Amino acid sequence: SQQGEEDPQALSIQEGENATMNCSYKTSINNLQWYRQNSGRGLVHLILIRSNEREKHSGRLRVTLDTSKKSSSLLITASRAADTASYFCATAVLISSGSARQLTFGSGTQLTVLP
Amino acid sequence: KAGVTQTPRYLIKTRGQQVTLSCSPISGHRSVSWYQQTPGQGLQFLFEYFSETQRNKGNFPGRFSGRQFSNSRSEMNVSTLELGDSALYLCASSLGQGANQPQHFGDGTRLSIL
Fold first, then answer.
1. Are A101 and B56 inside 8 Å of each other by CB?
2. Cβ separation of A102 and B99 shorter than 8 Å?
3. pLDDT tens digits along A50-67
4. How does A47-79 read in b/e, with b if 16+ C-beta sit within 10 Å?
5. What's the confidence (pLDDT) of residue A102?
6. Mean pLDDT in chain B?
């Protein structure tokens, strides 16, 4: 089963609006990462947030992490048609050494930004 | 810097055949991970290679194998292909081992089994 689950599965907004996607996970993590995938292409890394961080920004992107609720959110402000893509959260499950072996991806949110 | 390169981009095989996919990581990256992406199961981790050694393995049958060369390039092999192996196979490279840093993905190999 997936470690991370995104919500909603699909989101359609108008250009200029903000888009918020949520991710919930089940076990303790070393870090959580967000990726974007355009149709037919590979994944592009957006932001990595570590378990001791609560918020990170990168341009129009803002990621929050609440380890007590085991959840994260990705906010894209002032969205553009070029932001149309699938967005995935990926959790790096914490192992005993304090490190993380592998990423486990959620099922993704399909974002459509209408011009 | 050149990105992660995967070859071929598309491949069509029939059941029972075997296939080898190739991945060239970003220069200087020593870790290569492989993932299978399907509409039904999503993105699933296959294995990770670091310094020519398999360091971590996902829950896939032994028909799926890989290797890494001294220049960090990696190959993935699938033997006795089944219809359910049809998928987009993605490789990702990173500087270090494990999932403590961002993964850089190639555009994948689309494998279709007839």
1. yes
2. yes
3. 999 999 999 999 999 999
4. bbbeeeeeebeeeebbbbbeeeebbbbbebeeb
5. 84
6. 95
